[in-house]
Amino acid sequence: MSTPTDLPQPTRASAPPEPDNDQGLPLPDVTPRYRLESGAHHSTWIVDCGYQSAAHLELQAGPYTLTQLTGDAEASAKSAERLCSLTPHPAVLRVDAVTSSQDSYHIWYEPAEAGTLADYCRAKGKLPLGQVTTVARALTQALTYLHEQGFAYSELAARHCVFTVRGELKLLAPDIDTRPLASAVQKSRQAEDIAACAALLWLCLTGEEPKAMRLRAPLNLAVPQASEALAQTLEDAIDSRAQQPQLADLLAPIELAADPEPLELHLSAHQSVHSRLPAYRQPAPVEPRRAVKQRRQIYGKLPDVSRGSKAPQGKLSRIRRKGKGPGRLPVGQHLRERWALSGAILIGFLAIAGAGYQLFSSAHQQDSAAPAAVDASGSLPALMPSEADQQRAAKAQQAETDQDQAVALEPSGDDIALLVAELVATRSRVLASGETASMGDYAVLGSPLAETDSQLLASEGAAALADMSTELVDISEITATENGYRIQATVQAVGYSPAGSDRELAAQGISRHDGRVLQDVELILQAEGGTYLLTEARPLPLDPSAL
Predict the structure, then answer these.
(1) Separation of first and last alpha carbons in the chain
(2) What is the pTM of this model?
C-alpha cells in the first residue's frame, strides 16, 4: 500500500529524533495502514508506531489511531489535550498524546481498528433494534460524560463513532471546550449534540439520515416495530424543539424495545483485523412481549417500596395492560434511580397557581383507608368474589379477549411500583395530548380522578399543560387495601413557579429544595378489568397545622 500524502512521510533515520524537536516531529517510523475517516481539515488513520517515535512520544510501540488536523486547528488540539489529562471514559476513545508539526497537529488515540459507524450502517442498512440499543447506550453515555466535563462537538457524525476490535463503540475527541463560553451558548452546543445523537439513532433504525421535518416520513413506515414514543422522542430531539428530550430520554424507549445485541463488526472492520474480532453469534429469538422482570434488568435493582402491608393472599395473579408488545408500553421515558422519569411530561401533578383549580387533587376526596369500589355497571367481578363460578367466568372472559395481552407476574411491591410508573406516564400522555377517549387507559371511568381530569382538559387553563413537565422522583410507600393499593410518592416540577405563601404551598404538599419544586402526593389504585387503575390522586400536606 502506497504511503498517503496527507500524513507525514516515513523516512529512514539512523538515530531517534532529538527530545526537544516537538514542533517539527519527523515521525521517522510511523507507518500508515489504512484510512479510518476524513473531513475537510482532518483525516484519521490506523498507523503502526515504531520504537523510535514511540520512545520520543513516551508511548508504547504498536498500533494507534492517528488524527491529523490541518488549518486553524489549535482549538481542537487544545480540547483533545485537555481530554488526554482526564480519566478515560469507556465510551470515549482514549487520547494518549497530542503533538504538533510545522503546519498540523496530531492526536494519538488507542487503536480503533474495526471501522466507523458510518461504515457499519453503509454495509448493514437498517440495524436490528437490539443493535440500535447497543449503539444508543454507548452514544448517550459518551455524550453525557463529555457534556459534564465541558466538551461539545461542532459536528457529530457517524464517522466520528469508531469501533475497537473488542466490539466497543467509542467517540473521537470533541473539538469544542465549552467552559469559556456563556451559559446560553453551552446549552445551545449541547442541544446540537443531542439532535445529532438522535439523528444517528434515526440512521441506525432506518438506514437513512433524517430529512427535513416537512419531508421526513414517519418512523413506523420504515420500522414498523418502533413505538410511537420512540418516534416522537427522536423527532423532538432532531428538530430541537422547546421541550427537547435529554440524552437519557433518547435511550429509554430504545431500551424498552429490545435488549442490546452484539454488532457484526466484520461488516465495517478492515480485512487485516478480521481474525481478531470477537466471534459473532446470531442472538436467540425472543418473544415480542417482554416480561416485567426482564425489563427490570435494564434499570437495575428496584427499590424496596414494600414498607406497607403486604398484598393480601388471593390478589391478581395476572396483570393485563392495554396494548401489545414493548413498543406500546406507556412509560416512554427512562425509569432511573428511585423511579425518576427524566423529562417526562407528567402533566397534572402540581397545582397551577392563579388558575383556580389544582391539577393533582380530586373533587370528591374519600377516606384513604377505604378506596372507592369498582363501579357495578360494566365492571368485571371483584378480586375475591364470593362465588367460584363468577371467578371462573371472569377468568374465561379475560383469557378469550386479552390472552395475548396478559403478562404473568407475582403482584409484589416492586411489580406494583412498576405498574404505578406506567399508569402515571400514561396519564401524562393523555393530559398532554388532550385525548379524553384514552382516559380509561389509566383511570377507572367515573372515578374522582377521571372526573377531575375531564374538567381539567375542558378548562381554559388546559393549554398551560403543554409548557409544564414533571418527573416522579420517589415512591416512599406502597400499602395494600381491600381492592387495590395506596401509594405515597414525590414528584418534581420543571417549568413551574408556585405562587402563594409557604403556608399555602405546604397545604398542597409543595416545597422548594435547592431550586427544585417538589410535591408529596398520594395515589389510589383499584382493581378493574384484571388490572389496577387509578381512582384518586391528591396532594399530601407537608404540615397539618397549615390546613
Answers:
(1) 82
(2) 0.53
